[in-house]
Amino acid sequence: MNTLVADKLCSFEDYLQYDDGTDNRYELVKGRLELMNPPTIRHLLIADFIRDSLKAEINRKQLPWLCFKEAGVRTGLQKSRITDICVVLQEQALDLLDKSAVFQTPPLLVVEVVSPESINRDYRYKRSEYAAAEIVEYWIVDPILNQLSLLRLEEGFYEETILTASQPIVSQVFPELTLTVDQVLAAGNLGA
């Protein structure tokens, strides 16, 4: 078990090796470990649906890509975020096969599902960090506002399109994907 003092700054390399002997998940923010709260059931259901949909599209198109839940992405010198969903090239995963699943090169797509405690993190901090990390497409699925923000990287900044209801998700990474915002949000409703 590797322990770090909560007040002490942590290097990225220390973060990759960190294990406090629990199932806690941490992000690295400006060299400090930030404990992540467990997601809501709605959050998990929506993330599962998106992952299953993206994996089905990857398989249908026979793309050399992988889709992961809760993988890490390095977003700065002393920053690493845990994504809800990320899509990467197989070769990116091959480099990490027996290492911590923290990608140091940008994924093709990252998806975050908003929970009440993650609003600022998903809309503000991750948005700027993912743009700086040159992640070309970022979706923010918001079951609180019943919308999906589709962000595409243009000249270092995200151009945002807000989608609602039966609007299709028009992805540059997955141009043939046929999903609507309603379908994604409905996945978070048990028994509906």
* Percentage of residues in strands: 25-35%
Structural class: alpha+beta
| Unreliable stretches covering 5 or more consecutive residues | none
| Average pLDDT over all residues | 94
Widest sheet, order of strands? 3-6-8-9-10-11
Number of strands: 11
CA radius of gyration is: 16 Å
Describe the structure.
There is one protein chain. With 192 residues, the protein is α+β, with helices and mostly antiparallel strands. The protein has 5 helices and 11 strands; from the N terminus they run H-E-E-H-E-E-E-E-H-E-E-H-E-E-E-H. The protein has helices spanning 12-17, 41-61, 90-94, 119-132, 181-186, and strands spanning 26-29, 32-35, 65-69, 72-76, 79-82, 85-89, 102-103, 109-113, 137-142, 147-154, 157-164. The strands form 3 sheets. It has a 6-stranded mixed β-sheet, with helices on both faces. Strands 5-4-7 form a 3-stranded mixed β-sheet, with helices on one face. Strand 4 (72-76) and strand 5 (79-82) form a beta hairpin. The N and C termini lie far apart (44 Å).
